[in-house]
Amino acid sequence: MKVVIIGGGLAGFSLGVLLQSRGIPFVVCERDPIGFTRGLAFLVHEDAIALVEEFLPKFPKPKFPGNIVNDLVLQYSSGKEIAHKKLGSWHGMKRSDLVDFIKNYIDSNFIKYERVFSHFLYEGEKVIAAVFKNGDIEYGDVFVGADGAKSAVRHALFGETHYTPVEVKEIVGVFKSKESSANTPHLFRKYICKNRSMAFGIIPIASHEWVWFMQYHTVLQGNYSDSPEDIKAFVLESLKDFPEELNTLISQHDFTKSFVWHGTDFDMLPSFHKNNVVLIGDAAHLALPFTSAGTTNAFLDAISIAKYLVPDANLEEVFLAYYQLRAPIVNKHLEFGRNSKVNFLSRKMDDENLHIPLIKDTGSTRVTAALSQKIKLIYFTDPICSTCWIIQPQFRKLMLEYGANLDFEYRMGGLLPSWEEYNKGKIKNAKDAAAYWSELSLEKRMPIFSDVWEVNPINSSFPPSLAMKAAQLQDKNKAALFLRRISEMVFFERVNISEQARFLEAAEQCDLNVPLLLEQMNKEAQTAFELDLQFAKEKDIQVLPTFIFYIDDETKIRLKSYQNYEDLERALTTLVPGVVKNIYAKEPRALFATFPSLTTYEVVYLTDWPEEKVLAALNELRSYNIIKVQVHKGQMLWTRNTI
Questions:
Q1: At the topology level of CATH, where does 588-640 sit?
Q2: Which pLDDT does position 34 carry in this prediction?
Q3: 49, 213, 283, 614: most buried by Cβ count inside 10 Å?
Q4: 8-state DSSP, 266
Q5: Was domain 168-263 assigned CATH 3.40.1570.10?
Q6: Other beta carbons less than 10 A from residue 227's beta carbon
Q7: Is the pLDDT of residue 235 over 70?
């Protein structure tokens, strides 16, 4: 597997370091060998520093560039102090210094310069190469767009990005002085204007070196352009009522080395990937600069992708897991940035309402750590178990919220060897099964139809169970999709899945190797199925589904039959009280980025939206050809469109 990273920067080079450490072939394609040298700098929290220290080589021990900043003084433009706050440990540093620091850990042979992305070459729907404007072509297996806020890779995947209007700009510069009294070594000083949406700040980034910035509502710029001359005149005019030392500082500054940030963002993407191309950093998500989150998010994206990206990995599952992990977090940052902008423009900056505009206020920036010892979950099921079908909403929610902390395994319970050997409960034949399913359809909201028992009855669940074991031998993720698919076929589409042609059809739809599956059904899968049946007998599994949660042999919780979500969750929190719940993206489009198919009720359950709102959203996705629908007796099964 070769990974082609398009764009260096913090996200791209960090991913390169991680792939290099794991021996995965890669190349970073960057436009500028010199780097971004203009006066850009930022604050980076200690959490981000800790993340980078974890993935950089330990020897020599990395020493970060920049300067510790642990205090913030807020003042009005008149100089009157508003508050003096302890920040904890942040680091002020130049962007170029941090990029170079990380880049230097990569073998220079793996970095190719003078490459500006042009377009992709395809083989079917799969990208096989990236083409650059200088004529270079780089072939690979996985392509990562790390080309920043104006990402050309994102445009190639999803079309035009709709950025929010620029209402706040930020002018940034760097100055050096041994005599300046503008700041102290570890103090971030910020000046707030009472009668205008404007602020000015100074942050120390090295010994005798500072970064300054001015944030302002764009309407205040009037007829001034973004040229160095006009920007200098505009800043001096704006700072007339600020302390004299700031005017002195600005009057001596070389504005050809300054930069103007245009504050904008865009709505959360429904997915960070398409086929074998994935986005990271600002290419994937962009929050307004009020958050100070961009640097940390770049590191977290790189770590999240590298964690799952291994040779022979199922890319679809890797990228969906990455989205489910990161989207809820960066969506909070997006919201925080927008709220901060509203407060800035409305000048809600009195001492009572003034918040430090740093992402630390929104919660921890660390990756949600998985448990050092995962909770094991054995799920006894069967392809024709009706209770296993109607519990799908709860089970899917469990995997969304706690899947990262579960070591999960499907076991086949052998529900129906044949009608001659079936002696459980009140169901004795196909007619009884039809009546029972009809009752369930009235009690539960998951669609379940009894037609198969009336038209083409299933004589045994062993053939599709055996196929499931063969699928597990090939690929556990594809096997899970296969089990879901044959469940849909029997419960919604009224198909006899014990017929070989039908479960092979499902196997092909799930991208399983059908000839290999048939071969293994007669060999290894047969043994695996018999072991499942023996294990179920040893564990006295009498009811399906049965969930066994455990840490070790002495610590177990067993749940059987239909369960409310709270019961499943309680089993986890009882075993590990500190288990962390993932916050997943609930929008229907995001759910379809994870699940290939969902019933209407599953979407209602997972979004916690009213059904009317869900149906409106689903029909909108359908109108854009993102999903398609099957309808039977007023019930709907929605499927992600792969065309």
A1: Arc Repressor Mutant, subunit A (1.10.10)
A2: 67
A3: 283
A4: B
A5: no
A6: 12
A7: yes
Taking a C-beta distance cutoff of 8 angstroms, is the pair 320, 326 a contact? no
Q: Which amino acid is at 422?
A: Y
**Domain extents in the chain:** 3-65+92-163+266-362, 168-263, 375-575, 588-640
pLDDT at 234: 95
Contacts of 16 (CB under 8 A, 6+ apart): 5, 26, 28, 103, 106, 110, 111
Distance CA(358)–CA(337), nearest Å, equals 9
Lowest mean pLDDT among 142-146, 410-414, 580-584, 615-619: 580-584
**Rounded Cα distance, 83 and 61, in Å:** 37
Q: By percentage, how much of the chain surpasses pLDDT 70?
A: 91
What is the reported pLDDT for 557? 93
Scored b (16 or more CB within 10 A) or e, 181-218 reads ebbeeebbbbbbbeeebbbbbbbbbbeebbbbbbbbbe
Residue 496's pLDDT band, with cuts at 50, 70 and 90, is: very high
Give 580's contacts (C-beta < 8 A, 6+ positions apart). Answer: 368, 369, 405
Partners of residue 630 on adjacent β-strands = 637
* Structure token pair of residue 378: 């054995």
- The structural architecture, per CATH, of the domain 3-65+92-163+266-362 is 3-Layer(bba) Sandwich (3.50)
Q: What is the mean pLDDT of residues 282-305?
A: 87
